[in-house]
Amino acid sequence: MAMILTRRAEFSASHVCASPSLSDAQNRAIYGAAANPHGHGHNYVVEVSIEGEPDRVTGMVFDLRELKEILTREVIEPMDHRFLNREVPPFDRVVPTTENLALEVWNRLAPAIDRENVRLKNVRLYETADLYVDYGGED
Amino acid sequence: MKLTRRYRFCASHRLDTPALSAEENQRLYGKCNNPYGHGHDYVLDVTVEGAVDGNGQVMDRRALDALVEERVLRQMDHKDLGKDVARLAGVVATTENLARAIRDALVLDWPAGDWPLAARLARVRISETDRNIFELDV
């Protein structure tokens, strides 16, 4: 009887969506206002879902305290109040779209969370209340 | 990867089916059957699914916005769903039927292979209030 547990966290960061291999005009055409060179910011919300069996002894899918520590260490500390393009690799070379940011959050969390009978199920990343992406490791 | 975009529109409706008597409609739909109708601030979440492209995107948000604006919001915002929206003609304007009508408005008119977006439509989720939410996987 697998169960899914979800924990939410927030971080605020700035970014520029522009590829160094494209011209300013091309970046503007693809990313619109998000390509503004000095950047802009969001209050990102990340929802991390973990799937597993509740432990027979503890009754928990995952220790929430440990999950909070992992989230803080891997995502919140490195990204909160940072300029993603300049301060958070790989976004010095990867465009920090919501999609790529969700992928990076997944790549940072999965190795720390996955263990016997427990796995990272989904990362939902809200850029704003009106836009989010879901990534489940499938692509 | 899935990308979800949220839209809002305001519309009125009345739940009433000609298949039932006035009394039966009243009993079935309660206040939603009140004769002059009532309205909601609908919240629509449209989810598309696809691979991340070379620009780091599942798809261009503006293309999705334009499609939803043209096919859904322009047809339904500040309208009466039962009287003004052709796709709901002949069916009760429940939010279940509204979810189907929105799915159809987004996908039906495109012949196979002619879908204009870079990602496929995966889900329509619509709430009529914070307490009533309907999801339709496509």
Produce the secondary structure layout.
The complex is a heterodimer of chains A (139) and B (138).
Chain A: E1 3-15, H1 24-31, E2 40-52, H2 64-79, E3 82-83, H3 84-87, H4 98-113, E4 118-128, E5 131-135
Parallel strand pairs in A: 1-3
Antiparallel strand pairs in A: 1-2, 2-4, 4-5
Chain B: E1 2-13, H1 22-29, E2 38-49, H2 61-76, E3 79-80, H3 81-84, H4 95-107, E4 120-129, E5 132-137
Parallel strand pairs in B: 1-3
Antiparallel strand pairs in B: 1-2, 2-4, 4-5
3D architecture notes:
- By secondary structure, chain A is an alpha+beta fold.
- Chain A has helices at 24-31, 64-79, 84-87, 98-113, and strands spanning 3-15, 40-52, 82-83, 118-128, 131-135.
- Chain A contains four helices and five strands; from the N terminus they run E-H-E-H-E-H-H-E-E.
- In chain A, helix 2 packs across helix 4.
- With 138 residues, chain B is α+β, with helices and mostly antiparallel strands.
- Chain B has one domain (2-137): 2-Layer Sandwich (Tetrahydropterin Synthase, Chain A).
- Helices cover 30% and strands 30% of the residues of chain B.
- Chain B has a five-stranded mixed beta sheet.
- In chain B, strand 4 (120-129) and strand 5 (132-137) form a beta hairpin.
- The radius of gyration of chain B is 16 Å and the shape is elongated.
- The two termini of chain B are 15 Å apart.
- Chains A and B meet through helix 4 and strand 5 of A and strand 1 of B.
- Strand 5 (131-135) of chain A pairs antiparallel with strand 1 of chain B.
